[in-house]
Amino acid sequence: MSLTEKNIREKIFHNDLQSKPKGRFENIFYKALYNLTEDFFTKLKIFSKNAKILDYGCGTGSSLKKVIEFEPKKIVGIDISDVSIEKARSNIGSHKNNLELIVDNCEKTKFGDNEFDLVYGTGILHHLQINQCLIEISRVLKPGGRLLFIEPLGTNPFINFYRYLTPSSRSKDEHPLLKEDFDNINRKFSKMEIKYYGFFTLVFFPFYKNPKNSKFFKILKDLDQYFFKFRIFRKLAWSVLIIAEKG
């Protein structure tokens, strides 16, 4: 497996992270993206039926567990972190005939051209050289195949200030997505769709516990979706759902 210096830094960071007994403090904020996760898995369920799928940066396999239930033809999970892959094998098991877990470099995978119907990931592209990733995703996708990603935005000044104050919580090379990244996706793929999440749900996250059963959360997410209709408010979003198709 060929690795750049940045790849090696990411491998070390995520091996260290997954070797710790507790997750990051920032995990408490992710309930603010509950509706993003719901939408992500709704799309995955639609796209996965009888498909050959690549989980791009699968981590410890949290998404894989659910996607296996969607009856894909085959699902392959790759991650640069061997610690993460070992945890994924432990969490999911290696007895499933349609599942393969591999330590691999997302920027330069071992797969042939036009292998997959779907490539998906959560919070992975912003760790890598996005242009190289898009070239590689396009290469391994079949014509008409789709990509589906959850990624953080780099446009909210308050979130960026928090990132500045907490450098040890993230890897050195992380770069939440900006307009030029979406322009790049749009140039390489067709039918790109971007949906924005996480402003009011994040600002008021101390005021609800379980977003699944919270009427207050529902109000907040509806407010988010109303204001994100306006381009100026989209810069305040925390994260996005990206869907695109290989022409």
Describe this structure as you would to a colleague.
This protein has about 250 residues and is of the alpha/beta class. It has one domain (about 5-245): Rossmann fold (3-Layer(aba) Sandwich). Helices cover about 40% and strands about 20% of the residues. The chain is built from 10 helices and 7 strands. It has helices at about 5-20, 35-50, 60-70, 80-90, 130-140, 155-165, 180-190, 200-205, 215-225, 230-235; strands spanning about 50-55, 75-80, 100-105, 115-120, 140-150, 190-195, 240-245. The protein has a 7-stranded mixed beta sheet with strand order 3-2-1-4-5-7-6, sandwiched between helices. Strand 1 (about 50-55), helix 3 and strand 2 form a beta-alpha-beta unit. Helix 5 (about 130-140) packs parallel to helix 7. It starts with a helix and ends with a strand.
